[in-house]
Amino acid sequence: MKFKPLAFIINIAITLGVGALGGWATAQSVKTWYPTLNKPSFNPPDWLFAPVWTSLYILIGIAAYLVWVRRDKIVHFPRTVAIYLIQLILNLAWSFIFFYLHEIGFALAEIILLLLVIVINAITFYKINKWAGILFIPYIMWVSFATFLTYNIFILN
């Protein structure tokens, strides 16, 4: 398949846009509320989150592009897009629930649902393009860690 640079950029821009909105939701609380929480010893330093999430959003965008270029061959393309969009919405929602609303318990329930939908998304993408599914593995690993971290923050607070 021929590389489509505009589609590639748009797919990455969508995920980075979601990340930017999430960053907006977290910006104030990272300075004020989050430092007051009891956190487990394995809590990463604050500076690590932005580069990790930026890298993940780029990988997610690349995966979406790999699926998008095959859209004409996908029987259930609208369903695939719906799963992808639900995953992005849940990703964004977690930032608002945890950092903006300060609802740790609700954020824990939501991130468990997010992780499930990410796995479904990865499997769906893998069936369309092996690399699109594989690119979701770091995302699954990070959100698994974030789920464990959220659980521990919930227990400690």
UniProtKB/TrEMBL annotation:
GO terms for cellular component: membrane. The keyword Transmembrane helix applies. The chain crosses the membrane at residues 7-27, 47-69, 81-101, 107-126, 133-154. It is found in: Membrane. InterPro entries: TspO/MBR-related_sf, TspO_MBR. Its main location: membrane. GO terms for biological process: tetrapyrrole metabolic process. It is a multi-pass membrane protein. Belongs to the TspO/BZRP family. This is TspO and MBR related proteins. It comes from Pedobacter suwonensis.
